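Suppose you are handed a protein chain with no further information: no name, no annotation, nothing but its sequence. What can you learn? This example shows the usual starting point.
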Amino acid sequence: MQIIEMLHRGIITEQDVKDWFPLVEIAPFWAENLIKI
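A reasonable first move is to predict its three-dimensional structure. Written in structure tokens, the prediction is:
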């Protein structure tokens, strides 16, 4: 996912990613695991 790449490159914050997940209907369980990747 490009959003995760942006997080790891420091372009966006973890909070930005958490705000994005509900917009694309990613379940909270998967959201936390995706951030850890």
